[in-house]
Amino acid sequence: MHENVFSDAVVCRPLRSSPMRCERVGVVGTGIMGAGIAEVMATAGYEVIVRSRHETTAETTVMAIDKNLSRLVTKGRCTEDDKAATLERVRTTTSLRDLADCDLVIEAAPEDLELKRELFGDLGNLCRPDAVLATNTSTLSIIELAVAAFHPERVVGMHFFNPAPVMPLVEIGRPLTASDETVQLALEVVARCGKQGVVVRDSTGFIVNALLFGYLGGAVSMLERGVASKEDIDTAMVGGCNFPMGPFALYDLIGIDVCVAVFDALFDEYRDPTFACPPMLRRMVAAGHLGRKAGRGFYVY
Ligand SMILES: NC(=O)c1ccc[n+]([C@@H]2O[C@H](COP(=O)([O-])OP(=O)(O)OC[C@H]3O[C@@H](n4cnc5c(N)ncnc54)[C@H](O)[C@@H]3O)[C@@H](O)[C@H]2O)c1
Q1: d(CA 31, ligand 1 centre) in Å
Q2: In this structure, is residue 195 part of a structural domain?
Q3: Residues 157, 213: one domain?
Q4: pTM of the prediction?
Q5: Do 134 and 191 have their domain in common?
Q6: Which of 60, 103, 125, 226 has CA 20 to 30 A from 84's CA?
Q7: 209 in catalytic set
Q8: What is the pLDDT of residues 121-173, one digit of tens each?
Q9: Could you tell me if the CB of 170 is within 6 A of ligand 1?
Q10: Long-range contact pairs involving 1-7 (C-beta distance under 8 Å, separation at least 24)
């Protein structure tokens, strides 16, 4: 039996080396997160195989990584040789079967439970039984994916933040079924990528979003009560808390539609009024005011 000792959120460093080896990493999904995670893994020295459903998006992913690395070369933070070696470690495929020999597969497909369940079923079937399968989900229940994968002890959450190559934190979401070795391997990979790993129980929002969205909801309530303007609330949180941006600038950066989805997932799980989505946000989504990506959210861009 696997020991499953939880604390609510434990900052963890690998205490002992995982008996599992990890050299080859598969990435499923080539959206903003999949491409970023592939770059992080290749930069850390892993052999990476990126699975995209279409050849064109696979090529776009490699081009995006190339462009990011070129920017680092220009800034003097990476040499041309390092860039070439990193790109050489990235292969692409349109077939999930090509991930069969990976030691770790990180799934970064859209946030849709049925879609992810199907993917974990396929990965559980075709990957080696000792391969670790990780999901980058922000809000879905990891245990649902673990049981779909036939080897639930090998499934774990690895929640990278956007943009993955820049953000230092990865939340390791631990479902009830995960073995210590699986969590250990995830922590070791995160550490080799030069990032900080924190272990958190499989719970919606993990640490960061569960705390952040209470704060973001509070900011809208404050605005609606007329306590201050959105500009002044943003200025206050930057100047008073040393946050890089205020809540309304952050809403616009994340995307109002994404924020509504996160509020709904948190409320669905906890039934806590703190996470009730402010109605104003739904109206903004209906109006197409989705934030920076739409040119308009709380602010106009
Ligand atoms: N965007 C963020 O800021 C962010 C941050 C942390 C975690 N996440 C999580 O990462 C995951 C991916 O998010 P994203 O923002 O990169 O999404 P995205 O929409 O940018 O990319 C999703 C990718 O999956 C592909 N895809 C679609 N259907 C698929 C299928 N059936 N099988 C495999 N791939 C399929 C899409 O073509 C696309 O390349 C989600 O679970 C999301 O919650 C997102």
Answers
A1: 5
A2: yes
A3: no
A4: 0.90
A5: yes
A6: 103
A7: yes
A8: 999 999 999 999 999 999 999 999 999 998 999 999 999 998 999 999 999 99
A9: no
A10: 2/153, 2/177, 2/178, 2/179, 2/180, 3/180, 4/176, 4/178, 6/174, 6/201
Residue 207 in tokens:
């640490």
C-alpha atoms less than 13 angstroms from C-alpha of 219 in its C-beta half-sphere: 24
Same domain (yes/no): 227, 267: yes
Domain that holds residue 276: 208-293
Residue 151 sits in the same domain as residue 219: no
Whether 300 maps to a domain, the answer reads no
Is 108 touching ligand 1 by the criterion CB < 6 Å? yes
Q: What is the amino acid identity at position 94?
A: T
Same structural domain for residues 226 and 189? Answer: no
- Looking at residue 162, the DSSP 8-state letter turns out to be S
Centroid of ligand 1 to alpha carbon of 230 (angstroms) = 31
CB of 53 sitting under 6 A from ligand 1: yes
Dist CA 51 CA 59 (whole Å)? 11
Of all residues in the chain, what percent carry a pLDDT higher than 90? 90
